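Q: I have four molecules that I believe assemble together. Could you output structure tokens for the complex as a whole instead of separate predictions?
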Amino acid sequence: MTSSLTTLPARQFAGVVPPVATPLLPDGGIDHSSLERLVDYLIGAGVHGLFALGSTGETAYFTDDQRVEIARTIVSATAGRVPIIAGAIELTSARILETSRRLTATGVDAVVTTAPLYTLNSPAEITAHFRAIAAGIDVPLWAYDVPVRVHSKLSADLLLGLAVDGVIAGVKDSSGDDVGFRRLVAANAAAGHPVQLLTGHEVIVDAMALVGADGVVPGLANVEAAGYVRLWDATTRGDWEAARDEQERLNRVFEIVFQPTGLSGDATGVGAFKAAMKARGIIDHATMAFPTQPLDETAVDRIQNILASLDLLPDPVA
Amino acid sequence: MTSSLTTLPARQFAGVVPPVATPLLPDGGIDHSSLERLVDYLIGAGVHGLFALGSTGETAYFTDDQRVEIARTIVSATAGRVPIIAGAIELTSARILETSRRLTATGVDAVVTTAPLYTLNSPAEITAHFRAIAAGIDVPLWAYDVPVRVHSKLSADLLLGLAVDGVIAGVKDSSGDDVGFRRLVAANAAAGHPVQLLTGHEVIVDAMALVGADGVVPGLANVEAAGYVRLWDATTRGDWEAARDEQERLNRVFEIVFQPTGLSGDATGVGAFKAAMKARGIIDHATMAFPTQPLDETAVDRIQNILASLDLLPDPVA
Amino acid sequence: MTSSLTTLPARQFAGVVPPVATPLLPDGGIDHSSLERLVDYLIGAGVHGLFALGSTGETAYFTDDQRVEIARTIVSATAGRVPIIAGAIELTSARILETSRRLTATGVDAVVTTAPLYTLNSPAEITAHFRAIAAGIDVPLWAYDVPVRVHSKLSADLLLGLAVDGVIAGVKDSSGDDVGFRRLVAANAAAGHPVQLLTGHEVIVDAMALVGADGVVPGLANVEAAGYVRLWDATTRGDWEAARDEQERLNRVFEIVFQPTGLSGDATGVGAFKAAMKARGIIDHATMAFPTQPLDETAVDRIQNILASLDLLPDPVA
Amino acid sequence: MTSSLTTLPARQFAGVVPPVATPLLPDGGIDHSSLERLVDYLIGAGVHGLFALGSTGETAYFTDDQRVEIARTIVSATAGRVPIIAGAIELTSARILETSRRLTATGVDAVVTTAPLYTLNSPAEITAHFRAIAAGIDVPLWAYDVPVRVHSKLSADLLLGLAVDGVIAGVKDSSGDDVGFRRLVAANAAAGHPVQLLTGHEVIVDAMALVGADGVVPGLANVEAAGYVRLWDATTRGDWEAARDEQERLNRVFEIVFQPTGLSGDATGVGAFKAAMKARGIIDHATMAFPTQPLDETAVDRIQNILASLDLLPDPVA
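A: Yes, here they are, computed for all four components at once.
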């Protein structure tokens, strides 16, 4: 573990833990200046942790050298103010271990990874996979359940088995499987809450908090972080109607992701976030990682109109 | 290109091009001695090329260092007798380029890769992906279509567009989409045959040869290579009944992959091949890459019985 | 419309609207006596409506004659105490119209159906399908979104288009797509709430009520109806913690569906409900429709143990 | 069985057995006159049997009354010249039996159906389903494997079990799973050929005949039947190159199905066939069943151009 003072590292991550977008220069290089500004924006808004190198961070498109660059900047810009978990997205156990070790050397507090990619494995093999990775790194390991990208689902039973054995410290659930998530919440509670359970679904944070989620990883917080902090605060004090009202306001912002047409899933989601972040002045360029195609002007205009209608654009300079 | 003398490098690969299995030591290390023996076995049987580091070669489970080790041994054992194509299986363009360059430095003659993994891309983005990789390596690039692992299908239109522009030199089709494959064969012929089209389906080589495939990448050739050479020879001289008879014999050997029960897709397929290769004396150990689970004794016995019934086991030592 | 007094028939269905199971005799015939008792059990517990001939009611397994039998018994046993919506599950528009007319003749208050089955249709064709059915029946039409059975998803845009044009009066959402459901809730609210939106996910009713669902169709209410009524009442008075506590108790009951092993999806879900209903004395037999396989004794024992642990079994007769 | 003289009814169906399209009047009613002409066209071209009410026949869109109408016209127009198999496409066993009995009363020689639709069944349940249907009708039963519509696959083991027990007399395979089909061919041969195996893939008939298919159900034969008869004849005399040449010519005709854009799967396939049939004068109208959307003029023009280029349009009347 990274600190002898930390008695419950698995509990470091709770509340609002945004997946940090990766700002890029027009030539595709990392825009470290914008990235530092983004980290300050998020922490300034009160978020409780950072998720570096997740899907919203376009991590799969970067080399490990670039990933290390990105992690270093996030770590230095954060300066210990909040804990950082980093995604180690690679094909299989041995390759994930290589990437994980490079990332943990930058000073991140935890690593998160998925079931193997490309290969065809059984639950027993996936369990062995997580055990081997956890045994090979010196920070807590999280499991990331995102079937739309991994094409297999981590069952509640598999995750709970890893949890009670201390293999994983938390789960980021982007499965969209409510039944499974709630079973996991209940089983986790019954087992003494060995792991933290964060939802990746930013449009139902109020509902998932009611259900018992320990936090959320909202991509949209890159665009409007303060709302998620207010939302989470409302849930912690049991003001569910206030939480819902804030969520519904955020969901009107989330409509930006439905404005692009004819583009890929990655271009649509990250592209809308980056266009909005640029319009709000949080980053300098909306460039996405190669080969993701850019939004057209119509989509960008619509996104700006949504932001304007919700009073989220900066005042024009006189 | 690697040689100024090679006028048609894209046409090097035709006929029987087995995906070379990767023999492992009991501790999981590469069994170079068995690998050299396997290469000699395949070339001695008359195969026309080798496909290193494909799915049958368990490539996704290895680090790039291990992949380089494997490629080096295959290159040195081959000693120029047949051309070698190597799989560069990674998430996205930039990462595939890194892996490809390490592999081409070992002396392989071509590289093959898939559409991006994990990410959510459009056909236009996938096209740009292949163009960038081809532009960044100095050997011919092949496209590998294997939706069961990549979870997206390379359409005949996308592949033909890359072919006529000279971006790809060939396609390994493991899609199981006959309609698409035959459309691609017809379009390729109409365009002057810019690319080689190899099928990955080892149980219908006779039929795919009739349809116009330029060759086959048969995993089962690791177990019984001579049969595939005889089969392909029959198709080239138009003796379709002989080809069918040989295919049907090989398909009785292929029944080995249906003997394991309760295991993953990777354990079942590669595990049956390796068990049979060991039984035939081609490799020393049936170990599979971590975390793939081993076959049980019942499955191994059934596999040996199938081999025995087809007279494919070596005579017992007196 | 069936009644000149009903001014807002589309709004009849709200709150707890259980999908009524179909009790069967050991020979597979309809057990009308148990069905009447079940209707009385549900209405006695305070449910707000009944969903006849849904998936929990095994409707797909019955002939139209049997469906009419079942609907008649539910209508007569209900005796107007609550409104009834009936599932007309058939392949395509013309066939659904035939089934719908037979069902509406029994006196049900509304009909619910899905996108076409077996055929391969576009959103425009699916829209025309719902319009034709609505135009051909004289009760309100509901749309049923259940991709796990229909294998296509009704998008929020498609449903909202039908809603604002008055084609459908409500949606039963069993899609598991939270993002889509919440977008539909928001768009429905913005459009003046033209349709009722019921969730089919019985384990997250508290959360979906917070999100804005108008009601729930809980299969588990066949086993424990009073809990769902208490849960819904808590949501209507804004007591979200009480709602959550009740939901969590119900979810412990729901664990019965995870007890059978090795059976089909239909055998597992409906089988667990029927085994529990029989154990509680609500119906006489746990028989399922042909060819659904019965639970084994181990599964039935486990289900009874769960019920006993939650004090849901009747006292043994002295 | 329908005739005491028929000793091998299961072997009646072999060679070219086209799925008969269902010509419609502009108002959507059955165009019996065109249907009679189509039957004469097909039989005149030498086909060996007829498949009434299959997917190409748009059967799922028709009521049972309409299906009976269609079957009657096909039976009477055929006048015993070739055997007729009819599709009974319905949700589940009991409903399929009802439909099957109405169809067999029209005089068709066999019935074909799928695994249950909409429901979630296990292989054991699907086996029981076919057994119950076979036991309830007095003509041979065929199994239809079409996962793109049924969303479950009939395994070779399941089908062979039904075959050796005499439950089914044949299989129409539209699965696109070559490995499974070839395993089924081999197992069927080893078991004494209890069933006929027809492929539904009209673009690889040459290859599937080489593999051992007993016949083909080519939708494209509605447009160009003589070619399929020539193709099949070539395969029966072992002239595989002639078979391939004819197949390749037919595949150029098949390009008509790739001309429509933006339409559903059903509109595209059946729509292209009907547009071509009308252009060739085989039927009077290209109307498709509700709610399938019509082709636009551009697609129809392209289809006519393809037919013209292959000399398949009638001479213009002077």
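A: One point stands out. Confidence is low (pLDDT under 50) at residues 1-11 of chain A.
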